[in-house]
Amino acid sequence: MPLPSKKDLKTAMEVFAVFQWALSAFIIVITVIFVNLYLVVFTPYWPVTVLILTWLAFDWKTPERGGRRLACVRNWCMWKQYCDYFPLKLLKTHDISPSHNYILACHPHGLLSHSCFGHFATDTSGFSKIFPGITPYILTLGAFFWVPLLREYVMSSGACSVSRASMDFLLTHKGTGNMLIVVVGGLAECRYSLPGSTTLVLKNRTGFVRMALQHGVPLIPAYAFGETDLYNQHIFTPGGLVNCFQKWVQRMVHIYPCAFYGRGFTENSWGLLPYARPVTTVVGKPLPLPKIENPSQETVAKYHVLYIDALRKLYDQHKAKFGISETQELVIV
Questions:
Q1: Could you give all domains of the chain from N- to C-terminal order, each with its CATH number?
Q2: What is the pLDDT of residues 274-321, one digit of tens each?
Q3: At what angle do helices 77-85 and 6-42 cross, to 10 degrees?
Q4: pTM tops 0.85
Q5: Any residues with CB less than 8 A from the CB of 64 and at least 6 apart, and which?
Q6: Cα(first)–Cα(last) distance of the chain, in Å?
């Protein structure tokens, strides 16, 4: 039996890196819950659980105070395999000065925001070399910081809460050269994540513009070409039972449950891993905004329109390079 080649070994390492990323959060949550239940119910070591919960309460605000990043975790060689799997590429169109802070809005969300994680939560795709002097803070749901151990794992990547308090702290207490990464469409955009889709949930998402105005920081548009091509999704009959259930869940918890699928551990198999398709994130020109502590709704709407225009321009300038028809436009909902 022939030994696997170097190419086969590298492919296997890349698949494992993506697989563990998707599964790690679930495994950590289940492990923490069952281990602590076991300690409380079946052993005399329940004080361990009490200590863990006490530390959680004491440390609760850390995700809103800059988090706790670890360079050693951000530089894990496993993340290099993760980025090579697709592969992920980061393209700069303009220099960004470290003498200012920024809010970078990344589009689209896709199903699991693979490109956003690879570029901004790790340092293996070349971010620090492409944008020297800039510190990225990827902002995510506060729910990721509710579970002990998981919160440490997430914070070690440089992630912080996407709450208002967190953004205020990062823009006022961490000096300059900070870049806050916000995936504006969020989970609501998952339903539009289909191969070839260019639909963005952005029409009523103005909070990031208001925050930028209040702090007088530039907005940077970024578009990940190929993000929506990483999974297929089964679309149920509109108005049917399953579709009604999906809409009901979305109304209740603001999450649209998608029937998505991709590849398995081998290239031509079926599974829940993303397809190995290239994703290039193009970072646009910073859009300067004035500092207005209490901007009116009209002012926010004005700069929201300017931001959308800048995003459209970025998309139109680069879409042909990534196989998108010149006639295909961004759809804003």
A1: 6-231+274-332 (3.40.1130)
A2: 999 999 999 999 999 999 999 999 999 999 999 999 999 999 999 999
A3: 120
A4: yes
A5: 160, 161, 163, 165, 166, 169
A6: 55
